[in-house]
Amino acid sequence: MAGISITRNELTAGQLRAAAAKASDARAARRMLAIALVAEGVDRKTAAETCGMDRQTLRDWVHRYNAEGLSGLTNRKSPGRQPWLTPAQKAELAVLVERGPDPERDGVVRWRRQDLKRRIEEMFGVVMQERTVGAQLAELGFVRLTVRPRHPKADEAAQAAFKKTSSIR
To answer: pLDDT for 137-150, tens place per residue?
Structure first.
């Protein structure tokens, strides 16, 4: 076979088939059977088609088997996407939300997602959508419900005097 060769010699084709029969992962078992065929000298195209894969895919699995043995034939869990913000940045964002906006600096009296999006971009250099900002706030335990906004220069005494008082009948 010109394309690929198995350099690991600790398992024979029969032992690979026995390991495939005992494997709980069907995909890994299929890969073991394909490598057993390659070990017996079957050409790469036939071995790949017999086990339901492409020639290139079989070649990649043989390379992984040569490097890691049987454990290399199982699927690896993907590490996933990196988080938008580090834990330190999330803590800083939580403090920012708790403290509330500065009307002088931010130009708003209460935070909206679009305002926080702008601040996150300024503070951390992370560009994210408004929905993602909402998801970040939800992870921090903040909910969408907010108190009724109050004007920073509101006069409490004038508001109390203006309230109507009704007489009890």
So the answer is: 999 998 876 667 77
**Separate counts of helices (H) and strands (E) for the chain:** 9, 0
- For residues 10 and 105, give the distance between their C-alpha atoms in angstroms, rounded to a whole number: 69
pLDDT at 8 over 90: no
Alpha-carbon dihedral angle through residues 91, 97, 99, 103, given to the nearest 10 degrees: 140
Q: Check: CB of residue 94 under 8 Å from CB of residue 88.
A: no
**How many whole angstroms separate alpha carbon 109 and alpha carbon 107?**
7
3-state secondary structure (DSSP) of residue 62: helix
Per the confidence metrics, is the pTM higher than 0.85? Answer: no
The three-state DSSP-derived secondary structure of the chain is CCCCCCCCCCCCHHHHHHHHHHCCCHHHHHHHHHHHHHHCCCCHHHHHHHCCCCHHHHHHHHHHHHHHHHHHHCCCCCCCCCCCCCHHHHHHHHHHHHHCCCHHHHCCCCCCHHHHHHHHHHHHCCCCCHHHHHHHHHHCCCCCCCCCCCCCCCCHHHHHHHCCCCCCC
For 51, the token pair is: 């086990």
| 58-76 mean pLDDT | 92
Q: State the sign of the Cα–Cα–Cα–Cα dihedral 107, 111, 112, 115.
A: positive
